[in-house]
Amino acid sequence: MASKPHPPLMKKHSQSDLVSRLKTRKILGVGGEDDDGEVHRSKLSQMLGNDIKYQVREPVGLRVWILISAVAFTVMALMALVLPKQMYDIVFEEEINNTSVSIRLYGGALLSLSLIMWNGVYTQEKIIIQWTLLSEACYFAIQFLVTSVTLVEIGSLPNAAIFLLLSRVIFLLVTLLYYYYLGRGRPKKI
User: Fold this and answer.
1) Helix count (H) and strand count (E) of the chain?
2) Contact present, 133 and 65 (Cβ < 8 Å)
3) Which pLDDT tens digit goes with each residue over 91-106?
4) DSSP state of 37
5) Do residues 131 and 81 touch, judged by C-beta distance below 8 A?
6) Which of 21-25, 67-71, 81-85, 149-153 has the largest mean confidence?
7) What is the pLDDT of residues 163-174, one digit of tens each?
8) Scanning 73, 78, 92, 170, which has its CA 20 to 30 A from the CA of 106?
9) How confident is the model at residue 53 (pLDDT cuts 50, 70, 90)?
């Protein structure tokens, strides 16, 4: 009994077939890294949840920076909520009786931001980490501007306020540096 020889396998050579295969592999999430070395998550893997192989390459010290920020924001918020008058006195070296409500509102806003920071400590999602850094940078920039305007209105420049302004500039620069490094990608090769 002689069997018929199988016909030779046909190879797909067309450009549309190759593009179709690449799209299928991308949708399924198999075997694909971009130029940055990051593995793109497929729709299926996004629905199934996080996996360790989809982690983002993080800059050195990013998690420590977010942890320090979360702790600092929480401490400042609790201090503003519990001791509003003393917090104002430390920075501006003046006593004003009717600021406790506004300082407590400031503490509530800081506590909300600290919750975002605590979420950024534990997440693996690159976009959440970027938004955490961006909200932190916005806070530092706004606090710098508000404190500067307040000092101009008061007409004095206490040492504690100078220290606060300098620390906000440094914290803003560090946060923006991490944001830039996390968000930048290498240019695609053509």
Assistant:
1) 7, 0
2) no
3) 777 766 667 788 888 8
4) S
5) no
6) 67-71
7) 989 999 999 999
8) 170
9) very low
| Sequence-separated (6 or more) residues with CB below 8 Å from residue 188 | 35
How far does Cα 17 stand from its chain's mean position?
39
- Give whole-number Cα distances, 91 to 49, 81, 105, 150, in Å: 45, 16, 17, 11
Q: Longest Cα pair distance anywhere in the chain, in angstroms? A: 106
Residue 96 CB contacts under 8 Å (≥ 6 apart), including other chains = 88
Q: Which residue has the tokens 């991308």?
A: 26
Specify whether the CB–CB gap between 29 and 38 falls below 8 A: no
Q: At what angle do helices 100-122 and 126-154 cross, to 10 degrees?
A: 160
Range list of H helices, the chain: 15-28, 43-48, 62-82, 84-92, 100-122, 126-154, 159-183
- pTM of the complete model: 0.64
